[in-house]
Write a structure and sequence with these properties.
Helices cover 40% and strands 19% of the residues. By secondary structure, the chain is α/β, with parallel strands linked by helices. The strands form 5 sheets. The protein has a 7-stranded mixed beta sheet, sandwiched between helices. Strands 8-11-12-13-14-15 form a 6-stranded parallel beta sheet. It has a 3-stranded antiparallel beta sheet with strand order 18-19-20. α1 packs across α5 and α16 runs antiparallel to α17.
Length: 582
Amino acid sequence: MNVICSTLNAKFIHTNLAIRYLKSYAAPEFNIQLKEYTIKDPVMNIVSDLYQAKPAVIGFSCYIWNIEETLKVVNMLKKIDPALIIVLGGPEVTYDTAEWMENYPEVDFIVMGEGEQTFKQLLGEIMTTKNYQNVNGITYRENMQVKNTLQMNKLDLKDLPSPYRFPEDVAELGKRVTYIETSRGCPFSCQFCLSSIEVGVRYFDREKIKEDIRYLMANGAKTIKFVDRTFNISRSYAMEMFRFLIDEHLPGTVFQFEITADIMRPEVIEFLNQEAPKGLFRFEIGVQSTNDFTNELVMRKQNFTKLTRTVTMVKEGGKIDQHLDLIAGLPEEDYSSFRKTFNDVFEMRPEELQLGFLKMLRGTGVRLRAEEHQYVYMDHSPYEILSNNVLSFDDIVRIKQVEDVLEKYWNDHRMDHTVEYLVTRVFRSPFDFFQEFGSYWDKQGWSRIGHQLEDLYRRLFTFLEQQSQDNLDVISGLMKYDYLRVHKYKPRKPWWEASSDKNERSLSYRQIVENPARLGPEFLELKLDEKELFKHTILEDLSFDLGKYLTTGELEKHPANLLVYFDPTNNRTLLFPYKGMK
């Protein structure tokens, strides 16, 4: 029997761990073929590829990000070949299974919850007696009636075969994210999360996991992301794995974890700050809200003081990048409260701050009790909220404006010094900057068109000009500094008009050549002549002492300059702020 397990990933670089577990568990009785696509692939292309493989059974792994496109594929496949057996599984279809079966007659079976053993049993019954009541944890039809079977006890994860050893995966390991699982379940009960439904945490065999990681690294895996819901719930386990990864990692490998920051002990962070190579680890931390009442309503236990301590210690260590998550729209978190949440978290200056919106996932407590807070949300995936009793759709739109510019102007780190100046010295708070700029951005229609790097600078400067901001000369200087420091090569057409003409630059360059020590010992060692300065540098006038500001934070206004040297030999950019010579 020809069996395919398939899914539509959000992006090409993603891989699906679930279908690999199904394949490994079903062997050797069933030789399952894996087929992965993306949600951007044309449906006809997916259908054609699957059809040409001539399967008898296709199982699809379903999530909120792919269910709409997956159902289009399923519908078309069933029209072409009515005898094809379609099986759905995954978190999106595990709940409300009767509704799925009634609305989508082309679906033959739904596997609920943990699917390895269930799917293998189902394949066995399809091949033999077709007594589907013998299969635990499925929804199916019998005599036009939708039926469910009881789910089985949870698997002993230590007995699961490895899903990482398929020869066909090796060629792609270096190009895609590899997801790895060392535990299942979550000890917490956050009512917006599907993980809260499964009670307890179960672990895989540690030594087998280590062998899998060694195998993945040896075969070229570069980005390995742990999908454990709380990697550090067991301090001893986390320490053992951190030690192993530090000792045995190969150059260029990055490991990503979801951690609960407020339970991480200071000694663990001190260990990582001392022992971990820079860039080896990356933490994702769900903050979601700093409103205590909101957290209580969603049964989320969080000590924000301890969380702040962890994030701050990690940041000060300088070894590990951190990605912090917020959720807008949680119960009783109105616009004003969310503004505070945002400012509380931005105060820690995480490398990335992800602003998301509550999704009313099937099976979660917030969805089951949606009426209590008058939630209005999308009928289709991703079931994102549209309003509730304290947050109007107008508020949602405004927060989405914040999200848009936050991604472009903070998370991409295009102009860190500029943003830092704006959020601390110009606007009332970080949220107010992103909100006012985001609203202006949206009003100009920029959210609906593309942009180049230079556009981002021009648009921010236009916004600030419209606001008649004081110290626009200082902001402009910081923007120029941010723009130039990230360039490897001399930009052909910067976003601003040059502050001096060719003759004025020639005079400045001659002054520099005559007195290079004024720009510091590092510049003196370059021994650049006037021709090289013209060819490989940009010189800009400033109205303040940039060097002093970057060093001390003190703003001292007087004529100054910034010389930026794009070193063609060593492929590096050197910046030399200095006091004006004119």
